[in-house]
Amino acid sequence: MAEPTPDLPPVAAQLTRLIEVSVKLNSTLNVDELVQYIIRTAAEILDCASVSILLYDEKQDRLVFAAATGSDPKRLREVPVPLDASLAGIVFQQNKTMILADVKSDPRHFPLVSQHIRFPVENLLGVPMRIKERPTGVLEAVNKRGRPFDQGDADILAVIASQAAVAIHNASLVKALQDAYNELHAADQLKTNFLALASHELRTPLGIIIGYATFLQEEAQGEMSAHARQVLNAAMQMRSLVDAMTNLNMLRSNELVLHALIFSVQQALKSACAEIQPLAQAKSQQLELQLPDEPLQVSGDPQKLTAAFCNLLDNAVRFTPQGGRIVLGARREQDQILCWVEDNGIGLAAGELTRVFQEFYQVAPHTTRKQGGLGIGLAIARGLIEAHGGRIWAESRGLEMGATFKVSLPAASG
């Protein structure tokens, strides 16, 4: 067996480096770090002056430099590499390896890159970067030291290129997912900030309107009193929306504080029923309580649980037609207290049973729906129930067949 020439590292050393490259490429998800590692390591293994990565840009149908050893990436990106008039373009289009001992004499050479970065190219090795035989870019090595590139160099660079293509593709997917997540997070934060600002800024003028409307209703008579009552009702509805936005913002920012007591769940249900009763009466709806005489004890914040059931009842009133029937009930089931709000309203399709608890979700488009609200009441109810260690879900036999929202809370011990 012939001894390796002094110009080439031992085969075992090359294999060891290729294994190291494989491990590194499969453990790095940062695109910039990846491309720099690839070109630096490939240049060391092949003992050449420079290695560059060119990736295919589908939108502009050309190759663009992702990185090159010893060059400014920003300057390289300024140079478009056409597919039809460059050596890299030929490697990409033909999906084949290219070895050139004298680049300057080849008419296919695209000299603009060398001129732009002032780097003369003497010899070149180019291999396609593939994913499942589909080329995604080109890995180029130039200016081999001591001798021209040969097939052994091409085989080594091809191994690096195949691994690099997959690694860069995976890292790009992770980056795209991270960017999408960051955009969603920014949008989510914007909504949170809006909720906090809107609820804060609206509270003071609403307080003034409610105060004056209450005074006018008490002092005025006849038609003026009726007008004042309409203003007061509208202001009270707006304050309910502000309270809902405040509760949702506290849930989103994990600032909800529970003042836990042991009390009967009937207390919260009756309070919620009394608060929603005027809305039900305005639509001539029958609001019925089905509660046992035995106290159903739970541990939690009575005010927050009342707010949760107010949201459930408000939802039922909105989606139940004039003259409809709404039932609010509770019973013990072993170590749980089961509560429910049942209506004979528009019902829910099977695909809506979980989606209705999403923030700002509306079953009907806002341009056509007849019911008001922001689409946050059920999200708030879910957050408040879950904060008490309970769970909430919706049941419905289908559209126009009513819906039942059920809540299961841990029974208080002792």
Q: What value does the average pLDDT take?
A: 81
- The CATH H-level superfamily of the largest domain is GAF domain
- Portion in beta strands: 15-25%
Overall geometry comes to elongated
Residues in helix, %:
40-55%
How do the strands line up in the largest sheet? 2-1-5-4-3
Topology:
Layout: H1 11-25, H2 31-46, E1 48-57, E2 62-68, H3 73-77, H4 87-94, E3 98-100, H5 112-117, E4 124-131, E5 134-144, H6 151-219, H7 223-252, E6 261-264, H8 265-282, E7 286-290, E8 297-300, H9 302-318, E9 325-333, E10 336-343, H10 377-387, E11 391-395, E12 403-410
Parallel strand pairs: 7-9
Antiparallel strand pairs: 1-2, 1-5, 3-4, 4-5, 6-8, 9-10, 10-12, 11-12
Overall description:
This protein is α+β, with helices and mostly antiparallel strands. It has three domains: 11-176, GAF domain (Beta-Lactamase); 180-252; 261-410, Heat Shock Protein 90, CATH 3.30.565.10. Helix content is 47%, strand content 20%. It is built from ten helices and twelve strands. A five-stranded antiparallel β-sheet has the order 2-1-5-4-3, with helices on both faces. Strands 7-9-10-12-11 form a five-stranded mixed β-sheet. A hairpin with a 4-residue loop joins strand 1 (48-57) and strand 2 (62-68). Helix 2 runs antiparallel to helix 6 and helix 9 packs antiparallel against helix 10 (377-387). The longest helix has 69 residues, at 151-219. The radius of gyration is 35 Å and the shape is elongated. The N and C termini lie far apart (87 Å).
